[in-house]
Structures are given as structure tokens and as C-alpha cells.
Design brief:
Blueprint: E1 6-10, H1 14-25, E2 29-34, H2 41-48, E3 54-55, H3 59-64, H4 70-79, H5 82-91, E4 96-98, E5 103-106, H6 112-124, E6 128-131, E7 133-139, E8 142-147, E9 150-154, E10 158-161, H7 177-183, E11 188-194, E12 198-199, H8 204-210, E13 214-222, E14 225-234, E15 237-239, H9 241-257, E16 260-265, H10 272-278, H11 288-296, H12 300-307, H13 320-328, E17 330-334, E18 336-337, E19 345-350, E20 367-369, H14 383-404
Parallel strand pairs: 1-2, 1-10, 2-6, 10-20
Antiparallel strand pairs: 3-5, 4-5, 7-8, 8-9, 11-19, 12-15, 12-18, 13-14, 13-16, 14-15, 16-17
Helix pairs in contact: 1-6, 1-14, 4-14, 10-13
Bound molecules: flavin-adenine dinucleotide.
Flavin-adenine dinucleotide binds next to helix 1, strand 2, helix 2, strand 7 and helix 14.
């Protein structure tokens, strides 16, 4: 089925590729424009961690992960569910499995075989690939691209912007579209780091000793939310899975109050009472560090954290009750988020108030948006890729329906 309608998809990440897949399978003349020399660089980077493509939790819990944007994301996930995504992976030759945490990965634990098969399929469906095409905005209703220092103008019946967020900018998405869309009066919430690390003012002794080490089996709590897990100490802060899970709340608190106090339970396996009981044991000639190591099996990093307390010099004189409370309710002062460039994903973006139900910009006819560039965020766990890919599919189908209704 050959179609006369032309579709320009800008951005060759998972969202754009899925839209290209559906539109080209339906006979549209699709061209994907990508500023980098190859497609899906961030997708490939996600593959380094095994490519956690979606999650197996029940669908209500799944949708809640999108927080305040849950009602905007639900229609996308309803139309392309985590199971649909698994089947789609299988159709490209990549079986998936559910890991012990409920996260879903391809069996190969990589993104490259999936991406290769996907691009091959698009090629067969006659998608035209344009790489090193950097979109600069519009000249009237024509798209402007900078390609090898030349400026090219392109006209398409419909355009889909899938330009990503602003994290890991060397992979292609740097949020440069914000200024272009702001010039067009599109409502955009400021881009912010999501699933990010945080600055902590460590002493130089602590930073030198523990940089790169993980604090394992701890419980983190903030504003009534609790996460069991681990995180890493960096030269000037903390980052990693358990921190990312609370990062949106911590970030918003820092915006409000200039800092956030994260509570750590450094020994979640023992109750407060049990710790107190163990700490009744005489210290004899042991140093505080050795005593805590022997009586509670506290890790070196956890002991190091206690040594970071402002009153560390009096640690020796802590009562068993005070020490137990400090271990169970350790307050870690977070000064700021790490920069967006270092975050896993981006919060903020094109406001849902700026688009219609088909994800078309209200003030730009036949210009659609999809993926991480929209104003939503979600924790790691496969929720990001699921939403970006489902969004690409949703918009592609919306374009097809609108075309059938003669609205394009
Ligand atoms: C280290 C890391 C690990 C991750 N792991 C996971 C994971 O395991 N599971 C998960 O769900 N998510 C993960 N993510 C997040 C996930 O990769 C992203 O949410 C997803 O790739 C976003 O898809 P997208 O298509 O919206 O944007 P992107 O993948 O960012 O693609 C956008 C594309 O647009 C191109 N582009 C941008 N501007 C222009 C322009 N002006 N002209 C032309 N082209 C342009 C970019 O070069 C890019 O190729 C991870 C992210 C990182 C950084």
C-alpha cells in the first residue's frame, strides 16, 4: 500500500523509531532525521545496563509510577501495554524475561540486537534515514535542517518531534529544541534532572576513602516514602538506584528549601531495640569503629558516615540509645541535584496543556510531539522506555486515524 502522504520524524530514538515503524507499515512515506551519525544512541546506552525495557508489575501500580502525569500517560500504555512491548520485542527476535525485581529485559541483556533488527525492518518498510541532520526550527511551514554545514528545507504533511530530554547530551538529546519551541509560543515546563544523584559536602578524608564504594542494604526514607537498596558514594555526593527512586521528591524539596534531609536506616535488618541491646555490651578497649563493626556488623561505609557527623568527636560518649537512634535515623544532608547532563532522564518539557489528545501541538497544525521531551517523569525500572515507545505508537496511530478522517 503506497501512500502519497509524507511524514517527517525528527529524532531517531525509541519513540521516533516506533512511530516510523507503524507509519511506514501503513504505507506512509516516512523520513527520520537524526542529528547524530547513527540512531538510538541513548537506547544503546540503556542497553549497557541490560536494557530494562518495561516492568511486570500490575497495570495500576505501573501507571502510578508516572505521578502527576499518570492520567496523560495511561492512554498510551492502555494501547501498548508492557505485554504488547514484550511481544513486539519477540517479533524482532528478542525474547524477554522477568528479572527477580520484576523488571523486564531482553534475554540477550543488550539493546544492539534489537536496534539492529528494528532498523532492518524499517529499511524493508522503505523508511528513509537521514543522519547528521540537525533540526533548527521552521521557516514558515518548512522544516530547517543543518546538514554538513548546508541548510536544507523540508516540507512534510505531518511532522513528529521525538527529540528526547537533556541528559547525557553527547548522545544527541540536549534540549536545544526548548528555545525553538519557545519561539513558537509552545508552553514548556523547565527541564530538570530526574533519576539523578545529589551533592553532599563530604570531608576530604571520607571522599578519598569511599569514592566509588556502595552503601549496601540500607533503607532510605523521605517524606513517608521508603526504599530498600543501595547507592554509591561519589567524590562529591551520592548516586545510584535507591537514590534515583526518591530523586524527584528530593529534587523538589531542594527547589523549595535549598536542601533536603534524606533519612538512612544503616542497619535495617535489626530493630532499634535490638541495636540498643547489642550496644549494652562493654566496649573494653575497642575503638568506636571496631566496636560498631563487631557488635552490629556495620559496613565500613556506614561507619564512615557516622564519622562524618558534626559531633563525631563525641561519638565515643554516645549512649546506646543515642547511637541506635543515629544508626536507624541517620540524616544525610543533600545540597543540590547533580547537573541534568549526568541524570538518567529529564523531567519537565512540552506541557500537556500545549497538545491535544493526539499529541499535536495546539498552536502548530500537524506538528506532533512524543517521548521524553514531554512533561512527565518516572523512576527507572523500564517505565521510561515503555512510555516513550508507547507514545511513538500512539501518535503514529493518531496520525493515521486523522488522515482517514481527512484532517491532515
Ligand atoms: C545511562 C542511561 C541508561 C538508561 N537506561 C534505561 C533503562 O534501562 N530503561 C528505561 O526505561 N530507560 C532507560 N534510560 C532512559 C531512556 O533511554 C530514554 O528515556 C529514552 O531513550 C528516551 O527516548 P526518546 O525517543 O524520547 O529520546 P532519545 O532516546 O533521547 O532520542 C532522541 C533523538 O533525537 C535526536 N535529536 C535531538 N535533537 C535533535 C535535533 N535538533 N535534530 C535532529 N535530531 C535530534 C537525538 O540525537 C536522539 O537520537 C536510560 C538513560 C540513560 C542515559
Amino acid at each position: 500500500m503506497k501512500h502519497s502522504k509524507t511524514i517527517a520524524i525528527i529524532g531517531g530514538g525509541p519513540s521516533g523509531l516506533m512511530a516510523a515503524d507503524i507509519l511506514s507499515a501503513n504505507g506512509y512515506q516516512v523520513t527520520i532525521y537524526e542529528r547524530k551519525a547513527t540512531f538510538g544512541r541513548k537506547f544503546l546506552m540503556a542497553g549497557r545496563g541490560g536494557l530494562n525495557i518495561t516492568h511486570s508489575e500490575n497495570i495500576d501500580g505501573f501507571i502510578k509510577k508516572y505521578g502527576t502525569a499518570a492520567s496523560n500517560i495511561k492512554p498510551l500504555i492502555d494501547k501498548l501495554t508492557p505485554n504488547d512491548l514484550r511481544q513486539w520485542c519477540q517479533s524482532l527476535g528478542e525474547e524477554t524475561f522477568i528479572g527477580s525485581s520484576g523488571r523486564i529485559f531482553p534475554k540477550s541483556f543488550k539493546a544492539s540486537p534489537l536496534l539492529r533488527a528494528w532498523l532492518k525492518k524499517l529499511e524493508k518498510q522503505n523508511v528513509i534515514f537521514k543522519v547528521k541532520y540537525d533540526w533548527q526550527g521552521w521557516d514558515q511551514d518548512k522544516l530547517i535542517f543543518k546538514a554538513d554545514e548546508d541548510i536544507t528545507h523540508v516540507q512534510a504533511d505531518a511532522t513528529l518531534l521525538c527529540l528526547g530530554g537533556a541528559s547525557w547530551p553527547h548522545l544527541g538529546s540536549d534540549g536545544s529544541w526548548v528555545n525553538i519551541l519557545k519561539r513558537e509560543k509552545v508552553l514548556i515546563s523547565p527541564l530538570k534532572p530526574s533519576n539523578c544523584g545529589f551533592f553532599v559536602k563530604w570531608s576530604s578524608i571520607f571522599a578519598e576513602k569511599f569514592e566509588g564504594k556502595s552503601l549496601k542494604s540500607v533503607t532510605l526514607s523521605f517524606q513517608g516514602k521508603k526504599i530498600n537498596g543501595e547507592f554509591m558514594i561519589t567524590k562529591n555526593g551520592v548516586e545510584g538506584g535507591a537514590i534515583y527512586a526518591l530523586s524527584s521528591f528530593l529534587r523538589d524539596e531542594i527547589t523549595r528549601s535549598k536542601l533536603a534531609h534524606l533519612t538512612l536506616d544503616l542497619k535495617p535488618g535489626l530493630s532499634l531495640g535490638e541495636i540498643q541491646k547489642r550496644l549494652q555490651k562493654p566496649k573494653a578497649k575497642l575503638s568506636t569503629s571496631n566496636y560498631l563493626r563487631k557488635t552490629l556488623n556495620l559496613s565500613d561505609v556506614a561507619i564512615g558516615l557516622l564519622m562524618e557527623l558534626p559531633d563525631r568527636k563525641t561519638l565515643n560518649d554516645y549512649s546506646a540509645e543515642k547511637m541506635a537512634n543515629t544508626i536507624k535515623f541517620y540524616k544525610l544532608k543533600l545540597e543540590d541535584t547533580f547537573p541534568i547532563e549526568r541524570a538518567i532522564s529529564t523531567a519537565g518539557g512540552v506541557s500537556f496543556d500545549a497538545i491535544d489528545d493526539n499529541f499535536m501541538l495546539l498552536n502548530k497544525l500537524n506538528i506532533y510531539v512524543s517521548g521524553e521531551m514531554l512533561d512527565w517523569e518516572a523512576p527507572t525500572g523500564g517505565y521510561l522506555l515503555q512510555a516513550c515507545i508507547a507514545n511513538g505508537a500512539y501518535v503514529a496511530n493518531a496520525i493515521i486515524t486523522q488522515d482517514h478522517n481527512k484532517n491532515i
